[in-house]
Amino acid sequence: MDAISIVLGAYIIFRFFDILVDGTTYLPLLVIIKILFCFIIFKEGQLYRSWRGRPYSDQFSRLVLSYSLSSAAVTAVWLVLGFQFLIRPLPFFLWLLLSLFFILTVRAFVYSLVRQLRKKGINKKHIVVFGAGGLGKALIEQIRKSPESGYQVLSLFDNDQSLWGKEINSKKIVGGTRDLTITLDNEDICEVWLALPLKASSNIEEIMNICALKNVSVRLIPDVFDLSLLNHSVTEFLGFPVIDLNVNRMVGVNLLLKRAEDIILGSLFFLLSIPLMISISFLILVSSGGPVIFKQKRLGWDGKVFVIYKFRTMVFMENANNKTRQAEQDDKRFTKFGKLLRRSSLDELPQIINVLQGRMSIVGPRPHALDHEETFKKQVKGYTLRYKVKPGITGWAQVNDLRGQINDVEDIRRRVQHDLFYIENWSIWFDIRIILTTILKVFFSKQAW
Questions:
Q1: What are phi and psi of 320, to 5 degrees?
Q2: Which uninterrupted H or E stretch holds 191?
Q3: Which residues lie below 8 Å from residue 13, measured CB to CB, with a gap of 6+?
Q4: Which of 37-41, 320-324, 363-367 has the lowest mean pLDDT?
Q5: Which residues, in sequence order, are CB contacts of 24 under 8 Å at separation 6+?
Q6: pTM
Q7: How far is CA 375 from CA 52, 106, 369, 412, in A?
Q8: Taken in order 205, 210, 212, 216, is the CA torsion positive or negative?
Q9: Taking Cα atoms as reference points, which of 124, 125, 128, 126 lies closest to residue 193?
Q10: What is the pLDDT of residue 361?
Q11: Residues 435 and 352: beta-carbon distance below 8 Å
């Protein structure tokens, strides 16, 4: 379908633009080169893997970046071979834009169609879950709430005999590893998901051996807070492999690159958003008076306090105990346009000024109110590792729909897990993916309100 989209874009350009006779001879060659570049770069960008259970926003960001790289490559060919004299710049670049539009449209349509079919029970994957602890319960609940992913849990297993016969979300805990073997013999199971702590290595190895004999795939969903090693890189010192458990990567060249990214993109976003920020300021003044900007102290880089800027979305209310009250979905404190600003994340626009001041970054862990920070430090192991980087306007947790009201400890644990993954895997490429995904999430986030 990607190849057809590229060919269709070229055909439309050929029909509606006057291209020299020699140009029509070389246009098919450029189309073939473009398709080959896309196939190679798309594969490296993981665009041809299974997207079951993954959000379209992730595919969108990967697709835009991969397509841009392939377009840069084919543009280089167009220039080096002198094709710009045969195929003029306007039709050439319109062809690239049209092809991108068709690819995005087709993929979005197929993605939506398959999700709807899976909701109706078509194209289901039957799985079993091994591990009935807190992680197993959370996993089964998430699968139940996501029928569009196409996963169906048939059975639940655990080696704790006291749990046998009990139910979690209508799924009965059948037994342990012996019963798992019987189930794999008698049921059509696609995958076994292990919701076990990493320290349960003996159970994991035994289950892997069982599944290998039955030719069944195994996935491990680790509790990284129990033994958080998976998100850390392995380096080498003096010939020994070393796991970096707590190493600051935002130093040296990385720090310069990150700051350059913030200055360049921050300046661009600021200039583009000036008309919008003026309009929003006017609406706030007219509808609810001043002040336009809401200011609040937050913890930032290295745990230092800074003042964050946001458009005011709520009426001012005196808080006697000085505790920060979270915004709720139907909060009565919202101003006339406050809920719309929050849902679209437009209330965050003034934080671009924080970025240009050097106190925040465009991408990074979201900062919380000071009293919430103190609470989260006590509740979540590794929470303070977030202070290794500047807080961001958007982040890896936010584009994975981990935003909005925090209801329990598990909510903040999952956000911290994503923040630490971002810190350990930071790159310019990763930041651009998150920014592109954020743009899409403004319109389609499940948690935006």
A1: -65, -40
A2: strand 191-194
A3: 19, 91, 94, 95, 98
A4: 320-324
A5: 14
A6: 0.67
A7: 36, 46, 10, 11
A8: negative
A9: 128
A10: 95
A11: no
What is the pLDDT at residue 229? 46
Q: Are 42 and 50 in contact (CB under 8 A)?
A: no
- Please tell me whether residue 43 adopts helix, strand or coil conformation: helix
- Distance between CA atoms of residues 115 and 423, nearest Å: 32
* Cα–Cα distance measured from residue 31 to residue 96, given in angstroms and rounded to the nearest whole number: 10
pLDDT value for 230: 47
Report the distance separating Cα 356 and Cα 267, nearest Å. Answer: 7
Residues in the chain: 449
For residues 405 and 327, is the Cβ–Cβ distance under 8 A?
yes
What gap in Å lies between CA 431 and CA 289, rounded to an integer?
37
pLDDT, mean over the chain: 83
**DSSP, res 334:** B
R_g of the chain computed on alpha carbons: 26
Query: 114-140 pLDDT, tens per residue?
Result: 989 998 888 888 888 998 888 888 888
The H or E element spanning position 175 is strand 171-175
The percent of residues in the chain predicted with pLDDT above 90, rounded, is 26
Look-up of token digits 């999430």:
441
Place of tokens 């795939």: 217
> DSSP of 253-269, one letter per residue?
HHHHHHHHHHHHHHHHH
Which stretch of DSSP H or E encloses residue 218?
strand 217-220
Proportion of the chain in helix, strand, coil states, percent, rounded to 5: 55, 15, 30
What domains appear along the chain, each with residue ranges and CATH number? 2-119 (no CATH), 125-223 (3.40.50.720), 252-444 (no CATH)
Minimal CA–CA distance to 141: which of 183, 172, 170? 170
> How many CB atoms within 10 Å of residue 425?
13
Please name which of 319, 315, 389 lies closest in space to residue 359, comparing C-alpha atoms: 389
Q: What CA–CA distance (Å, rounded) separates 266 from 353?
A: 8
What are phi and psi for residue 188, nearest 5 degrees? -90, 90
- pLDDT, position 260: 93
